[in-house]
Amino acid sequence: MEERIGQLGTEARGRIEGAADAEALKTIERELLGKQGVLAEVLASIPGLEPAERPLVGRLANELKCELLGSLAARREALDQERLATDRACDDFDPTLPARRAVRGSLHPITRVRRKVEDVFTSMGYSILEGPQVELDYYNFQALNIPADHPAREMQDTFYCTGGGNLVMRTHTSPVQVRTMERAEPPYRVVSVGRVFRKEEQDATHDHTFHQVEGLVVGEDVTAGHLIGTLRALLARLFGRELDTRLRPGYFPFVEPGFELDVRCPFCEDGCRVCSRTTWIEFCGLGMVHPRVFAASDVDAERYTGFAFGFGLDRLTMMLLGIDDVRHFMAGDLRFLEQF
Ligand code: PHE
Fold first, then answer.
1. Rounded distance, CA 284 to CA 214, Å?
2. How far is the CA of 174 from the centre of ligand 1 (A)?
3. Distance from the alpha carbon of residue 310 to the mean position of ligand 1, in angstroms
4. Mean pLDDT by 10 residues, the chain (340 residues)
5. Which CATH number fits the domain that encloses residue 119?
6. Is any ligand 1 atom within 6 A of the Cβ of residue 285?
7. Does residue 100 lie in a domain region?
8. Would you state the pLDDT for residue 165?
9. Sign of CA dihedral 316, 201, 108, 131
10. Is residue 96 situated within a structural domain?
11. Which of 133, 131, 202 is closest to 161 using CA atoms?
């Protein structure tokens, strides 16, 4: 057996030395040291040997294995060096070329403005919450005082999911209001930013997928004054100066009274493209939480009052970053995204 091991060694050394490339070396390694390799065979035969012979054969086999591992590694290194030397000898090898740079992505413009908005609200003591994008009909509509036959559903036509349950792609972030009120006793001060979906014809200002910011504050003695002050403070922080606002009555089934807040166009004095020549920009839906919404979540409407607001993040991002078409946001075109 010792003789056989010696012979194996000589053979193996020759083969390793003669390997022409990394591929060939791999095959040789497998045949020598692999699970079905020749060395494994030798080791497997040990139990059948004379007891006196076993330790010696075991030792020799292991020594050979270590040696071969060493020469395999050395040969691999030598082959690598050879290949490099050949490459360098070629005419088109230019060692002065800079290394290829790793491509770094950048934050999506919506994400940047989202973070800005969240920072402002966190500084005012709000918590940031997330809600599901695929929502139960109950949270998206019913608990918000929009029963199945309510005309408000018409304005928020969406994608209904087939299969089990009454699931819809949420049409607004307002379901987060209900999920919040259901979970805990007031007071709370929360903001939720996320994707919403509607069945819209796409054009420069409408997309089927867009983003909203929802706010909800409930507590004792929360008033509409707090609501308007909060939104004005937000606008001032975002645009770096105080902007005029105006309040119009607005209808949303889950608030009473309900309003719409317009902001004076930050880009012009007497009308421009952004404000459609009106000098006002519709910014936000808002109002005081409707008693029916409180009731649906078992919040005591005698004791607490609250306000809610919701605005689109896409249009705000367009205004803050000077973008002229919402469709850019979802197009995934790097020429657009790399500019931010
Ligand atoms: N969810 C409303 C919409 O998408 C906006 C809104 C939110 C209005 C909160 C009032 C209060 O149109």
1. 10
2. 6
3. 4
4. 87 90 90 89 88 88 91 91 86 86 90 97 97 95 92 81 83 97 96 94 84 98 97 97 96 97 94 91 97 97 97 94 88 90
5. 3.30.930.10
6. yes
7. no
8. 66
9. positive
10. no
11. 133
